[in-house]
């Protein structure tokens, strides 16, 4: 079943987020301002999990990590490692296609101040769990940041203490899949040099080997 069957653009399960999106749509009628669907290859063996749409990025464009700083390093790495046909992701109409890779978020709606609450992360988790279930055997899940890392563990019904978050870590998941985690490619992390292009490329080099 395609992953889109596991995503509801009409979802309003989190009242705070749904109301916030209504307000954002009034201020920015040209923005997507709805839950942002997973994007990419439905048969992918690499699932990338981010945090949540950014206000002027995914929330505006309707595609994860698209239209703001957070996507720059990520899409470059995807291009460099052969998962994307384009270096940059700018809009739904840019012709970018991912192969063997799909990108989603732990929380599908833009949260105020970029901070979803614990309850919102929990509420959204069944969508992620359903997406993970569509992965072929021996897939790799790349979690960008601690919230995504914990959301993946939760989706598997694992305690967050099962696997500590760290940059460039690798854990075996209870099925045949692997969890690779990385610092999030946010503007803050890049500008403070917590994450560099070289560091992200090293993570992708391992992912390429895991998928071989
Ligand atoms: O985690 C993030 C950050 C920006 N854009 C996304 O789609 N996800």
UniProtKB/TrEMBL annotation:
Annotated InterPro entries: UDG_Type-4/5, UdgB-like, Uracil-DNA_glycosylase-like, Uracil-DNA_glycosylase-like_sf
UniProt GO MF annotations: 4 iron, 4 sulfur cluster binding; DNA-deoxyinosine glycosylase activity; metal ion binding; uracil DNA N-glycosylase activity
Alphabetical list of Pfam families matching this protein: UDG
Residue ranges occupied by any Uracil-DNA glycosylase-like domain in the UniProt entry: 37-208
SUPFAM superfamilies per UniProt: Uracil-DNA glycosylase-like (SSF52141)
Record keywords: 4Fe-4S, DNA damage, DNA repair, Hydrolase, Iron, Iron-sulfur, Metal-binding
Entry annotated with the keyword DNA damage: yes
GO biological process: base-excision repair
PANTHER family in the record: TYPE-5 URACIL-DNA GLYCOSYLASE
Annotated family: Belongs to the uracil-DNA glycosylase (UDG) superfamily. Type 5 (UDGb) family.
Protein name as it appears in the record: Type-5 uracil-DNA glycosylase
Species of provenance: Methylomonas methanica (strain DSM 25384 / MC09)
């Amino acid at each position: 079943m395609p992953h889109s069957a596991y995503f509801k653009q009409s979802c309003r399960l989190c009242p705070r987020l749904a109301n916030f999106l209504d307000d954002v749509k009034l201020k920015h009628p040209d923005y997507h301002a709805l839950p942002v669907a997973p994007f990419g290859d439905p048969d992918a063996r690499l699932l990338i999990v981010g945090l949540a749409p950014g206000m002027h990025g995914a929330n505006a464009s309707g595609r994860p990590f698209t239209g703001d700083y957070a996507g720059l390093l990520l899409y470059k790495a995807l291009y460099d490692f052969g998962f994307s046909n384009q270096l940059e992701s700018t809009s739904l109409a840019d012709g970018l296609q991912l192969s063997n890779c799909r990108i989603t978020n732990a929380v599908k709606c833009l949260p105020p101040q970029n901070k979803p609450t614990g309850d919102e992360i929990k509420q959204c988790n069944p969508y992620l769990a359903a997406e993970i279930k569509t992965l072929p055997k021996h897939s790799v899940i790349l979690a960008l940041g601690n919230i995504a890392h914990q959301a993946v563990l939760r989706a598997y019904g694992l305690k967050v203490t099962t696997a500590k978050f760290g940059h460039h870590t690798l854990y075996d998941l209870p099925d045949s899949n692997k969890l690779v985690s990385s610092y999030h490619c946010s503007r803050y992390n890049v500008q403070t040099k917590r994450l560099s292009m070289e560091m992200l490329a090293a993570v992708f080099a391992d992912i390429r080997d895991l998928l071989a």
